Amino acid sequence: MPEPYDIYLSLLSRYIIFFFVVEFAERVVKFFYRQSKQITKPDNITIGIGQVSSLIKITGFIFWVLLLFQIDFKELFTSLSIIAAAIAIIAKDYVSNVISGIVLTFNDQISINDQIKIEEVKGRIMDINLTNIHLLTEDDDLVYIPNNIAFMTKIINYTKIEMKRTSIEFELDTQFVSSVEDLEHRLIESLADYKNKIKPDSYNLKVVELHKNNISFKFQYVLADPDSELEKEIKKKTIRRILTILNSDKLRNNPMPQDLG
Length: 261
Known about the structure:
The chain is α+β, with helices and mostly antiparallel strands.
């Protein structure tokens, strides 16, 4: 009979071989996939392959631990059925996240660097792992969305839209709006520096709602090439221009009183 430590070394060597075989297979599959698609950066499929590889490694480790303690699989699953059911209930959210993550990565609905909106959170996808999606918001906050929530919730993918229309909503007091056409012209003029980046016929200023004392507007345009950083920059410029227009109109409508002394 072999010494106990020989058995342990044998089991350990088997798991190490198993681990590196899975790792090697993952790298080979990723290599040929990238070669066929002519890509260098990670995409959904390569992330999905990595997730499947991780699950196989984790499963192999669990079986290795059972073998290490010489636990009979049949007796284990028979005698521990109640405990297994309890564990399944406790781990159902994690399992749901893992399955949802694999499904999300192996379809083309969302991808790394896509600009999306999940519920009320809007941002750029930085990563998709086994449990959650990492979103970088416009305020540079990193938000983690569980995969099962993303899977079950309506997702708006702005990047996948062939013609990405940017919208900026704002309100102005009615006394500061002489005409919609004049306001639209002034906003377009403020973006003259970006005229080569914006499709010329895509500018549009809409009146969303008309109230007694104010008007809700939506200013829209289409970027020639989708660019999240450029979109953020143009939005900032437009909002500042709206504030400038508002302040200048306030001064014009309410001039400073002259000193009669």
